[in-house]
Design a protein that fits this description.
The chain is of the alpha/beta class. 30% of the residues lie in helices and 33% in strands.
């Protein structure tokens, strides 16, 4: 049988119940009696792609882009409002290791319940029962009720059930990253085995380097829409472009979740000179490939400017970088806002540099001995 995963024109609307109230003062007891109104929010819009055997698809996007929701549509937990999902082959999901458990059922009963919900036959479950108990380290607690287990034991049980069989299509929401050291080693080994032997994988993660290492395609999400589907490197560039265009707070979140998002760009801001009508910044930087930068992004007080730098050949920087040649120093000038608060500007200043507009690295630090001048 040919294994495939075809997604055709999929959109999803979810109900949003809002408390009825005509004024901001309608709160508390009165608001509770005012009833609610239901509206629908579009969380996925016109998603379309086809996965074939051998595809390892990185599902990439900012928080709230729709990655986890799309995975739940792919595994059938959510039915699309529009469009269709065609699945050929067995499918398993590693989305939430503890979802679907019954608190007052025993460990063994939960294995049967969860396995049945996964679509496994009774014969498969009976064959896998011993392995699940051993893998999760819960054989001596097989008759315990679930509520007697710790959160770590529940996580181990859920992971063991979810990975007890090898699927054709594997859906993953983040690589396993919790548990004690001994379990983590077993889980990592099994995860890699299931990943490598699946014929199609769709994996959401914030780890760009992990995507580069294990995936050959990328599906980039942005506000519930598919912005790109295709080659992994081009997909990462599409995601970097999205991150470079959002506000500072979202950029910080993206870079915090994946410090290597824009590579190992390095440098420092050494001088800030505020003059009549302009602000001059000087420093040095390398791009994500260790080369000269082609753009400098300056953000402060809500103002955001992409500037082409004057590149400066600096012997001290070349010696520091062990480079024989290259102009790694930079100098840029941005317009001074009409209403200008110097203290506010310095406290919110963020300077990033990179090869291209969508390749800006993490914000460069301000040197300890940086000169801040006002004329």
């Amino acid at each position: 049988m040919t294994v495939c995963l075809n997604v055709h024109d999929v959109s999803l609307e979810l109900p949003l119940d809002l408390q009825r109230g005509s004024t901001a003062g309608a709160m508390g007891f009165k608001a509770a009696l005012s009833g609610s109104v239901r509206r629908y929010a579009t969380v996925l819009s016109r998603i379309e792609f086809a996965a074939r055997e051998g595809d390892r698809i990185a599902l990439i996007g900012l928080n709230g882009a729709g990655k986890s929701t799309l995975l739940r549509v792919l595994n059938g937990a959510l039915a699309p409002t529009r469009g269709s999902v065609e699945r050929r082959g067995t499918m398993q999901s590693l989305l939430n290791a503890t979802i679907g458990f019954s608190e007052y059922a025993s460990v063994t009963e939960n294995i049967i319940l969860r396995g049945t919900a996964m679509g496994l036959r009774r014969r498969q479950l009976l064959h896998a029962l011993g392995d699940i108990l051993d893998f999760s380290g819960l054989r001596d607690r097989a008759n315990y009720r679930l509520h007697a287990l710790s959160s770590g034991q529940r996580m181990r049980l859920g992971f063991a059930i979810s990975t007890c069989v090898q699927p054709d299509i594997l859906l993953m929401d983040e690589w396993i990253a919790t548990g004690d050291a001994a379990f983590m080693e077993r889980a990592r080994s099994r995860m890699e085995d299931r990943f490598n032997h699946s014929r199609i994988v769709v994996m959401a993660s914030h780890g760009i380097e992990l995507h580069r290492r294990v995936c050959n395609k990328a599906l980039v999400m942005d506000n519930g829409k598919m912005r790109y589907f295709g080659d992994i490197e081009e997909g990462i560039e599409a995601y970097q472009d999205i991150v470079s265009r959002v506000g500072a707070q979202l950029q910080t979140q993206a870079r915090a979740s994946d410090p290597l998002l824009f590579g190992h760009a390095t440098g420092v801001v050494e001088r800030v000179r505020i003059v009549e009508g302009g602000i001059e910044l000087e420093g040095w930087a390398t791009d994500d490939r260790g080369g000269e930068v082609g753009m400098v992004l300056v953000e402060a007080n809500g103002v955001r400017e992409m500037l082409e730098p004057e590149r400066v050949d600096r012997l001290d920087v070349r010696l520091h970088l062990a480079k024989k040649s290259g102009r790694y120093g930079f100098r840029v000038t941005m317009l001074r806002p009409a209403r200008f608060d110097p203290d506010g500007f310095i406290s919110t200043l963020r300077v990033s540099a990179g090869r291209l507009a969508g390749k800006a690295g993490a914000p460069l630090p301000l040197a300890n001995a940086a000169l801040i001048e006002m004329n």
